[in-house]
């Protein structure tokens, strides 16, 4: 199991905004029902639109075992998020998890 599959802190700390063109209605693959509109061209993953954020596609317990319910169809911010990055370390710290080495 990778560290990301144990962690999930990023999915339960950041807002996830991306282009409407990544949604199914916009020609992409992210399920429309998992997003909320932000502007005419931007949507946000449902669950990351309030405090504390937790993506509705995240299953499991942060820091123990997690999975993304739409991993194959996840939006670009999720695809681009790097294990061990500064943002990763901040999210882990907010959940009381130790730092990890960059992947």
TrEMBL record:
Pfam families: CxxCxxCC (PF03692). It comes from the Bacteria. InterPro entries: Puta_zinc/iron-chelating_dom. This is Putative zinc-or iron-chelating domain protein.
């Amino acid at each position: 199991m990778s560290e990301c599959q144990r962690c999930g802190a990023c999915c339960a700390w950041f807002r996830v905004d991306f282009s409407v063109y990544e949604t199914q209605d916009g020609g992409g693959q992210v399920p429309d029902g998992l997003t909320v509109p932000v502007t005419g061209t931007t949507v946000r993953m449902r669950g990351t639109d309030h405090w504390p954020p937790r993506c509705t596609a995240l299953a499991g317990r942060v820091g123990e075992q997690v999975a993304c319910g739409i991993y194959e169809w996840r939006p670009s911010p999720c695809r681009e998020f790097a294990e061990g990055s500064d943002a990763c370390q901040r999210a882990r710290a907010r959940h009381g998890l130790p730092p990890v080495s960059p992947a």
